[in-house]
Fold each of these.
Amino acid sequence: MNVDFVNPFLDALLNVLATMASTKATFGRPCIKTDNKSMGDITGIIGMAGEKTKGSLAISFSEGAILHITSQMLGEQVLKIDETVVDMVGEITNMVTGGAKKELAKQGYKFEMALPTMVTGKGHIITHKTAGAIIVIPFRINKGEFFVEVCFNK
Amino acid sequence: MNVDFVNPFLDALLNVLATMASTKATFGRPCIKTDNKSMGDITGIIGMAGEKTKGSLAISFSEGAILHITSQMLGEQVLKIDETVVDMVGEITNMVTGGAKKELAKQGYKFEMALPTMVTGKGHIITHKTAGAIIVIPFRINKGEFFVEVCFNK
């Protein structure tokens, strides 16, 4: 998978966090996922599908990270992963993918977005089914870490 | 959401289990999901996206159910949820959605399939982000239960 596919997701996520949650995240070097070690407490998953381009995106948050981000977005302190947090993860997943979709369309990679699905459960593990590479970008805010995983079929 | 959307997934799943795993499943009445009570130990999730039709499918298996199904598919006893089982859940998710896609296209609902994503983690919970209804179909084999959840944007 071309790294050109990854930067639009990275940029969109930083942009969503900055504008919606006044949160500045630092990120590590995007790398190819070779095992299943990135775990999350809540994950947003969305499919991307076009005639030639098929993919999936997962954003896996630790509890600390998503409680901080949701609290910032809502302007009130959120203390546990509840329905509001789950819905917010869906919103973030949609916004990040929507932002990346526009950029990727300019590069000739066109796809439609499916509906987001959210997973909750302490320390669950995400795996993708693809013949292509799975790229992981680790992010950190001072309240915890989260991971973006992107894969496409080529 | 029209129930016409659901039957192709139900038929495809029964067909996949019968032909690939020599397993006959019984199923309960499809119902609208009003809470998040269906939990699984391993789930396959896939997005569906077309110009007008957007959706997502999740198949959540209990450990007992997926170990039996995978053992039947491979012809050898599988005792724990490992990489092979995770991959098999991705295959099943692909096959069920591929089967349903053909039927739904005949009815004028056209979409492309995204790449499947698999989630492992004891008792995780799946939620969908949609303005439409989420339909749940409960299935049972003698080794355990599993759930299919389908939603579309209309």
Amino acid sequence: MGKVTWKPGTMVYPAPAVLVTCGSTPADWNMLTVAWTGTICTNPAMLYISVRPERHSYPLIMANMEFTVNLTTEAMARATDWAGVRSGKDYDKWKETGLTPEPGEMVKSPAIAESPLAIECRVKEVLHLGSHDMIMADVLCLRADDRYIDPSTGAFSLKDAGLMAYVHGGYYSLGELLGTFGFSVKKHR
Amino acid sequence: MGKVTWKPGTMVYPAPAVLVTCGSTPADWNMLTVAWTGTICTNPAMLYISVRPERHSYPLIMANMEFTVNLTTEAMARATDWAGVRSGKDYDKWKETGLTPEPGEMVKSPAIAESPLAIECRVKEVLHLGSHDMIMADVLCLRADDRYIDPSTGAFSLKDAGLMAYVHGGYYSLGELLGTFGFSVKKHR
């Protein structure tokens, strides 16, 4: 029993599996599934997506230097997988997945109506790392589905949205709440 | 019903909540909880961690330009939360959490014995973004707990390790498998 050593690999899990939307007009709006994404700074709020330059969406992002990150749910698992396997060069991904575009607030790229949260972004810097370019971006605004906002408290419950996680080739639902931030140091009453 | 617009925020979820270990000798080995982490390139395998420079672990990472990312599980939820709230300046985090350090293979920083997978990293570049520095690193090797390796097939099952996800202030277990990569285009037989 113990640890065995393997060659380098990409094993930071669980990862999100977001749908990145891009394009400047309804005719060229596209989506792309991205698991290599995350927050890189709290203040200012910044995130990254790492994308292979040969992907159909890559020049669409670069044309406007804008994109939108749409969080994905259990109900979107099939569409998310499909959009990651197929190319917008060959298919109208909106038609094929049944997902619904809606205009952005501060960017030309659309949000996905079925997503509980869309994060509108402007590209700040692109780093060529190898297979992937890391696209670093400022978060311009968040667009939250009001279905998950408690009208009495204003609290936004992403848990109720049924977010999905990606782990080493598998899409998983989220299970039980194990604790909230700081629970390990809270006094018992 | 629809989307409401909010000011920028850090909402790329679910995120991992990894334990980053650092330091060069058993006396200064420390750990730090990081949710702002992810894969940034597949080939070469690279990841990032974003850390506030004022954290106790920051100079420990910079001293050797090495660190280890340890994936976390449901069983590690309390320790992971605790290591994120408390500082190694004030506590011996190993003693307080009960987690067990073991020597690294290619780095001076330790792995956590209780973690199913340790990712040994060498710092490549540091970007000062604001509240957080983004530390980009090459993955040197993976160290996998053989408890999760099927002896007959050699397959590594992170699912069996009970990985934990972090969503907007909450730690969650993973739930059911919704599908595997490519399931949306597989022919039904």
